[in-house]
Write a structure and sequence with these properties.
Number of strands: 0
Number of domains: 2
CATH architecture of the largest domain: Orthogonal Bundle
CATH superfamily of the largest domain: Tetracycline Repressor, domain 2
CATH topology of the largest domain: Tetracycline Repressor, domain 2
Order of helices and strands: HHHHHHHHHHH
Strand content: under 5%
Distance between the termini: 90 Å
Helix content: over 70%
């Protein structure tokens, strides 16, 4: 075997090793990013955006302090990333359901659109308790900082909701529609944030574990609200 071939094999071995190391480093980075998102989601849900420091988040995630600026830049961008992680698949599922409704060849009715918009959200809230609690807390947060962050997120991931509801309530004047839309959000967020609240109010047991059970009552209520005389 010539010295050139030996050197060539040695070079290939080094490149292969470097590639393996790069892949391992990338995986480690992705794992650190996910741990940060998980920890931030829980802490933001428990204490709010302003009640948690970056140091507390990295401690809970078991990563070094430089991980937040490395992966997200700022605490604000981390907050948005936490919500985008759940909201993007939710938007995609809503759009897919609406697409299937249109493919049936007739204009979807209000009740069908409400099911398409709400069922994915209710199911996701059962699957991701901390995200559900985070949205509920953030939606009630009065600080301008959080309101601005939520507005940015809603303009990207949640605009499908008012757009589609406007289509099936085209006859309503703007002021009537948007007040009713505001009530729609109030109902949705209240029920999602604490599905067990009904048991406290009624003083008896109700099945709050399945989204379709809640929606069986919520959707007729919302339909009647949008359809009532202006």
């Amino acid at each position: 075997m010539t010295a050139t071939r030996v050197a060539g094999k040695g070079g290939m071995g080094k490149r292969r090793k470097a590639k393996v190391q790069a892949v391992a480093k990338r995986r480690q980075g992705l794992a650190s990013r996910e741990r940060l998102l998980d920890a931030a989601e829980k802490l933001f849900a428990l204490y709010g955006f302003n009640g948690v420091s970056v140091r507390q988040i990295v401690h809970a995630a078991k990563v070094n302090l430089g991980a937040v600026p490395y992966h997200f830049g700022t605490k604000e961008e981390l907050f948005k990333a936490v919500i985008y992680r759940r909201a993007q698949p939710l938007r995609e599922e809503r759009e897919e359901r609406l697409k299937k409704l249109r493919e049936k060849g007739k204009k979807p009715g209000l009740e069908e659109v409400l099911w398409a918009l709400l069922e994915p959200a209710f199911r996701a809230s059962r699957e991701n308790e901390w995200f559900r609690r985070l949205l509920g807390r953030a939606s009630m947060d009065p600080t301008p900082e959080v309101k601005k962050l939520l507005a940015e997120i809603y303009n990207v991931e949640f605009m499908v909701v008012p757009k589609e509801l406007r289509k099936v309530n085209a006859e309503l004047p703007d002021d009537v529609f948007y007040w009713r839309l505001n009530c729609f959000y109030g109902v949705m967020l209240f029920v999602l944030a604490d599905p067990g609240k009904i048991q406290t109010i009624a003083g008896k047991e109700f099945d709050t574990s399945r989204p379709e059970v809640a929606l069986k009552y919520v959707i007729p209520f919302l339909t009647a609200g949008f359809r009532s005389p202006a």
